[in-house]
Write a sequence for this structure.
């Protein structure tokens, strides 16, 4: 069922004694997420929210067998925290912090290349498998278990996509925010590969954003598939004039002119159903519903 | 965050990169004395220090400033003060400043440096790898963006190792691409690795030297320089943060940044208040599809401070170009009721004189709606973005 996280995930919280972490871990526990331990350097040996706190991720792994982590540490501590999680061999790390320096992200990506650890984020609402596990800051009340996978580069539009599935009378298998930053961990291809193989996902909603060629790469991957599940795609930003600072100057020089329309064209050409307004998603989902057997 | 040319040059020179002798002048008499210090005979360059490219091709708004651009070559000593007088206190308009232009309050006075040829060298981040990427191009103008769009094959792109910088083989690749003479090799290596080290040490997001000059002895010299820095890493570089020139940023933007929000301006007439860039873009796209433009948007992100949110909303309410306001909030970390309270407090302080449509979804949305309904403010609450946009457009048309 679902991808990356479910009822069986053994979740660690890095930075568990912080205010934000306390607020959200309590909600995640209430939601039924299997959070089993926390880490805060210097606070090992204590209990917090009824969970054992360790000084290091390695100790937490050895004592409790955690395999995933959600971290609410501040931006400047992210690099060290991800390194620690990767060295301890965790499978998944979800990083919520906003404002991680770009150089730190380049270093983090280099660290992850040599490890089995997958990173979601930073600057993301996280990942939620409705009814099973919540790692992040999602407003859990808008989600319902179902068979639509959602993956988005925009945090706020992730919520909008969830609302669209609800309007279509459907629920979600797993919802993932890739993060709003310039450099982030897992990308569309990493997530789509998993959705395509997941028995509990029948179709995917994918939300792109300005900058980079992540959507083009996803389209290329989708085109190469023999067996595909339908994808409904949306990319925001058509109204932004080309060259506005909201895009990224380095992108123009390294990648040439990449407009929102180019991204949509690439997705369309690969067989992804592209909508022009985010509120058109529910209609497309309903159109797909019968052939793909989506109705719950 | 950007800095001025002379500041960027100073940083690069600390990394062993050659720069022409120069100094900063705020008055015509200072310009004269700096000129005497940097070169006995001249000629000299007078360079307007505003944060914009294409200063040379720009023009001054004031007639008295003369027809020449923002960068001037002066051959005779007696002309320095006169030329400086024209430029200082005048408003320079370039392709990048917008029609309002920017006030020139200081000049960088440099010894003119004769070079046999020029090229472009830049460092940016290629986010897809991700890595620091060196860009080299043979260009006669400073317009690298134009080259990137029209002739991308004319730009050499090389990924650099974050720790080690350019390898000897990569330096050779640049030598061959530019067909530089062997006597430039040592200077090139020094130049590129100096740029890379400055980039890494200061958490830069971009360094551009447009152009690099090749001197008669084969040595390289930075004739112009531009550096941008990662705002999120400024805490590591207080010395760079001090260089921030508030005059260079939009007033509204500075205000919004103070509260921790993002603000962007466009040329339409609808003000948007949102809590994410994605939702802002989606709203703008929707408005545009109905033929309506966005004046500005404010992204309050995950704001939790009621006072700050109210102050942010006031920025939009008091913008004279705004003829209608769209508030579209998808509460997650951010609670909708805080926005509702912010709207009331801002409207109370500055008055609500234009149509306002609000749409809430997510955390505490019912509470937020109730607060607004009790406020008796003349606003409309919509159920989704489509409805919000349609309602607002109609209200703006009717209020005309």
């Amino acid at each position: 069922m679902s991808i990356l996280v479910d009822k069986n995930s053994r979740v660690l919280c890095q930075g568990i004694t912080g205010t934000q972490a306390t607020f959200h871990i309590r909600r995640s526990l209430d939601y039924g997420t299997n959070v089993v331990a926390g880490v805060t350097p210097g606070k090992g040996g204590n209990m917090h929210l009824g969970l054992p706190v360790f000084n290091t991720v390695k100790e937490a792994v050895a004592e409790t067998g955690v395999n995933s982590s959600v971290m609410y540490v501040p931006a400047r501590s992210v690099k060290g925290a991800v390194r620690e999680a990767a060295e301890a061999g965790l499978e998944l790390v979800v990083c919520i912090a906003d404002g991680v320096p770009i150089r730190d992200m380049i270093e983090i990506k280099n660290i992850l290349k040599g490890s089995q650890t997958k990173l979601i984020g930073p600057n993301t609402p996280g990942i939620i498998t409705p009814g099973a596990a919540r790692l992040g800051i999602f407003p859990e009340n808008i989600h319902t278990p179902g068979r639509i996978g959602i993956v988005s580069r925009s945090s706020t539009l992730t919520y909008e996509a969830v609302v669209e599935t609800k309007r279509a009378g459907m629920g979600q298998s797993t919802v993932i925010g890739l993060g709003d930053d310039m450099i982030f961990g897992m990308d569309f291809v990493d997530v789509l590969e998993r959705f395509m193989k997941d028995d509990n996902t029948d179709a995917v909603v994918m939300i792109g954003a300005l900058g980079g060629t992540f959507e083009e790469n996803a389209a290329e991957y989708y085109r190469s598939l023999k067996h595909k599940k339908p994808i409904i795609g949306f990319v925001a930003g058509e109204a932004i004039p080309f060259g506005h600072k909201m895009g990224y100057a380095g992108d123009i020089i390294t990648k040439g002119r990449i407009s929102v329309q180019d991204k949509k064209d690439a997705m369309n050409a690969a067989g992804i159903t592209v909508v022009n307004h985010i509120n058109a998603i529910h209609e497309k989902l309903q159109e797909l519903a019968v052939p793909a057997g989506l109705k719950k | 965050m950007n800095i001025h040319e002379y500041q960027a040059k100073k940083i690069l020179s600390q990394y062993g990169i050659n720069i022409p002798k120069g100094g900063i002048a705020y008055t015509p008499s200072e310009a004269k004395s700096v000129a005497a210090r940097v070169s006995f005979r001249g000629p000299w360059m007078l360079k307007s220090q505003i944060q914009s490219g294409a200063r040379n091709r720009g023009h001054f708004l004031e007639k008295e400033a003369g027809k020449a651009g923002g960068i001037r070559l002066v051959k005779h000593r007696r002309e320095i003060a006169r030329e400086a007088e024209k430029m200082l206190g005048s408003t320079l308009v370039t392709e990048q400043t917008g029609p309002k232009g920017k006030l020139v309050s200081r000049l960088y006075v440099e010894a003119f440096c004769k070079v046999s040829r020029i090229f472009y060298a830049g460092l940016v981040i290629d986010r897809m790898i991700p890595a620091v990427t060196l860009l080299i191009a043979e260009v006669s103008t400073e317009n690298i963006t134009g080259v990137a769009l029209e002739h991308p094959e004319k730009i050499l792109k090389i990924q650099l190792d974050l720790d080690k910088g350019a390898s000897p083989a990569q330096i050779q690749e640049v030598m061959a691409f530019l067909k530089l003479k062997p006597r430039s090799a040592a200077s090139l290596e020094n130049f590129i690795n100096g740029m890379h080290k400055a980039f890494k040490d200061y958490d830069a997001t971009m360094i551009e030297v447009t152009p690099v000059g090749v001197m008669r002895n084969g040595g390289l010299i930075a004739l112009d320089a531009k550096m941008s820095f990662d705002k999120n890493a400024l805490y590591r570089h207080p010395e760079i943060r001090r260089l921030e020139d508030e005059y260079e940023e939009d007033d509204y933007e500075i205000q919004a940044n103070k509260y921790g929000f993002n603000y962007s301006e466009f040329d339409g007439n609808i003000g948007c208040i949102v809590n994410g860039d994605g939702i802002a873009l989606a709203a703008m796209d929707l408005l545009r599809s109905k033929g309506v433009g966005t004046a500005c948007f404010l992204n309050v992100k995950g704001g939790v401070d009621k006072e700050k949110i109210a102050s942010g909303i006031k920025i939009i309410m008091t913008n004279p170009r705004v003829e209608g306001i769209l508030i579209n909030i998808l509460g997650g970390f951010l609670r909708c009721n805080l926005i509702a309270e912010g709207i009331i407090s801002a409207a109370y302080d500055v008055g609500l004189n234009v149509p306002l449509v609000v749409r809430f979804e997510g955390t505490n949305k019912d509470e937020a709606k109730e607060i607004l309904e009790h406020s008796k403010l003349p606003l409309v609450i919509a159920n989704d973005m489509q409805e919000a946009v349609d309602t607002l457009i109609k209200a703006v048309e009717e209020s005309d």
Q: What stands out?
A: Chain B has a mean pLDDT of 91. The domain at 117-241 of chain B is CATH 3.30.470.20 (D-amino Acid Aminotransferase; Chain A, domain 1). Chain B touches chain A through 58 residues (CB under 8 Å). The first strand of chain B starts at residue 22 and ends at 25.
